Model the fold of this input.
Amino acid sequence: MPGIRGDRKRPNLRDVARRSNVSVATVSRVLNAPSMVLGPTRERVLAAIDELGYFPNAAARAINLGRTRIIGALVPTLDNAIFARFLDGLENRLADYGLSLVVATTGEDPDAETVKARALMNVGAEGLIVSGITHASGFLDLTTNARIPVVAISHFHADYVFPTIGYDNRASAELALRHLHGLGHRDIAIIHGPKRHNDRTRLRISALENLRLPGSLECQEAEISIEGGCRAAGRALARAVRPTAFLCLSDVLATGVLYELQRRGFDVPRDISVTGMEDLPSSEFVFPALTSVRLPVADMGTRAAEAIANWVESGQPPDPLKLPVELVSRSSTGPPFPDR
Amino acid sequence: MPGIRGDRKRPNLRDVARRSNVSVATVSRVLNAPSMVLGPTRERVLAAIDELGYFPNAAARAINLGRTRIIGALVPTLDNAIFARFLDGLENRLADYGLSLVVATTGEDPDAETVKARALMNVGAEGLIVSGITHASGFLDLTTNARIPVVAISHFHADYVFPTIGYDNRASAELALRHLHGLGHRDIAIIHGPKRHNDRTRLRISALENLRLPGSLECQEAEISIEGGCRAAGRALARAVRPTAFLCLSDVLATGVLYELQRRGFDVPRDISVTGMEDLPSSEFVFPALTSVRLPVADMGTRAAEAIANWVESGQPPDPLKLPVELVSRSSTGPPFPDR
DNA sequence: GCGAGCCGTGTAACCGTTTACACGGGATCA
DNA sequence: TGATCCCGTGTAAACGGTTACACGGCTCGC
Done:
């Protein structure tokens, strides 16, 4: 009996129609408008579908409906809790809209981002989510030419070329600095990730410098990893003036800094204070519990999902959205020189 | 001039062809076989493409080529470093093959997995990656009927219904237990994640019980989070016989356990030993550095990508692959009662 | 008993590509 | 000069669905 098992070709609507002695239209209706065809015809069709192991072809369906139901997300990496949490929120909410998420990592490289954006469009993404507001001109050309909805996350900017859904990176950094300054710290080491291609980092650093608070700020750039934080802490401690506080622009870096300080016998916050940025779930449990600036990344994922979903469905771009940040004060910060 | 800007409809090949006074075939060739059409014709076509902002329709292309270049992955969550790292490895390697990754989270629920699997197939996934070897019958029906390549990860099983790429979960748990037992521990608390629907966890626990080493094993189930680990540690310590070691089936749980022990004033490993499972990058930097069993998740992502890519390209299913696990001994384990 | 209306089903056009095949014209060769 | 070949290009048939429209048969009302 041909067509039941083991044949090369995947069965299509026509095969099902033939096997159940109806037209392709009827089969299509059984699948898409179940109430339209009932009784024995319906039974026959369903039986044929089952026997043939028929499954509708996504591309053919997409070409007719004009929709792929695919949203693409471009993130620097998945190997960083901040983006993974964001994507978790994004994917869950997109699923509520019946949209699927295709993920591409860029390694924070604008050219790679452009290449991957093209790949996302090639698989039919109806909308794109990107991180930050620094992009290759090729990326801008590509997306504007194709008139594809793009939402930028991680940084709020009221009139960027794409609608943004993010927080105020300047304010988030200032929150940490003001906290430390308020405690009395004047010699502060800033530990940050790579500045190259990362607008959030650059914005935060410039915000800190522009505050012009009395005292000195010294920057140390580090690879974003616990080890990177360790090494940066070592370098900062080797300077002529030892800082009384470390302001880290990532919780991962702060975790490394805490570790290195502990290893070298410093008491945090008695000898040195440390702040993070992001407020990862684990930051409450490092020792000592990390003072950090909470960035609502999971919520950002949810909001980004809603924004892009409405956009691709209604054609109406979303309004930019600023998400609140807040300082979460824990045990890793205190006044400098508490003994004097 | 109609068709240049602001028209509703997205331009298609025909529009480009009309505008450059060539046939659709020529336009298609400019895009797909650049060397076939050169000179002024080529220029005209490229100009028209540019002016119209033409971008090829993914679905139409897919229907002809018979390929979508999409691979779907089903993972319990993205909000856990172990899966995020896996996906990072997977996505990077898939990109080398020109394949895109669509991600769906299941919350460790087989029914949700089935629903999401259907969604992945509806967007045209050519192959699927799933976690573990516990799946709803609906999932099995769906995937076998549609004859779609499926690779199961996280657990090696020589002749599962799908090819597996993973490690030996029994052996990984035994490694930890043998280590503790070799140090002299007899009263051991096992801290594990939810057993329900999680075959890896169940396999590990049964492996530990089946070893039948002298001494007692007490299980505590916890939600997989640092806080979950804290609470489980509290419960284990409240028992009549206080364990001399905690064997945690996840580094995240172990981190919580370490935190709770420290909070309660226990000295690790002098008073109590702790082991983890996974060996996350951060585990080297918790205090004290965590003894753990290294699971090669990033490598698993790479291998899974290669396996599914070859499968969808050649039609040949991959051989199951067992990845090595190893005990990484650090400072969180030592002999019990070192004083006596 | 006959026309209207409805319901279930079929026919065929269409979606936007790719590509086998056909075709026409210029260069090459005898 | 005419046959041959090649190259660039066009025509049209797929691909696998959805759906507007047509159509035939049934029920119903007058």
About this structure: Chain B is about 45% helix and 15% strand. Residues 12-14, 24-25, 28-29, 32, 56-57, 59-65 of chain B lie near DNA strand C (CB under 10 Å from a C1').
